[in-house]
Amino acid sequence: MEETAEEIYENKLLVEANYEMYNLKTNVKNTYNKEGWIVKEVFSNSEVVENTFTYEVDEKGNPIKVTKTNSQNQGNYVLVINNTYSTFPTN
């Protein structure tokens, strides 16, 4: 099985990647907001799929809900976060 991967990071965040497995080549480009949360990812191979992420936050700025929508109607999803790192006690 032949696999190759090239990944480009900026500030420890994956901004672009090129993957190849067998004869399928895929390019991925990610965009982040100032908090470092992904807001858009674009997959390009035989077609282009764009996923968009939106966030709801609590009064402290912690994400409590993440909604992912995509351009190909491949099933959108909502992730509800019940606990955040600030919920747990620290030493």
Key words describing this protein structure:
single chain, mainly beta, globular, 7 strands, seven-stranded antiparallel beta sheet, 91 residues
Mind explaining what this structure looks like?
By secondary structure, this protein is mainly β. It has strands at 3-10, 13-21, 24-32, 38-44, 48-57, 63-70, 77-80. Strands 1-2-3-4-5-6-7 form a 7-stranded antiparallel β-sheet, with no helix packed on it. The radius of gyration is 16 Å and the shape is globular.
Short description:
Helices cover 0% and strands 60% of the residues. With 91 residues, it is mainly beta.
Quick one: biggest sheet?
Answer: 7 strands, antiparallel
Annotation, overall tally of beta strands: 7
What is the CA-based Rg, rounded? 16 Å
Low-confidence stretches: none
Instruction: Tell me roughly what share of residues is in helical segments.
Output: under 10%
Order of helices and strands: EEEEEEE
Proportion of residues in β-strands: over 45%
Overall spatial form: globular
First-to-last CA distance: 47 Å
What's the mean pLDDT score? 85
The helix-and-strand class reads mainly beta
Tell me the strand order in the biggest sheet: 1-2-3-4-5-6-7
- How many helices does DSSP assign? 0
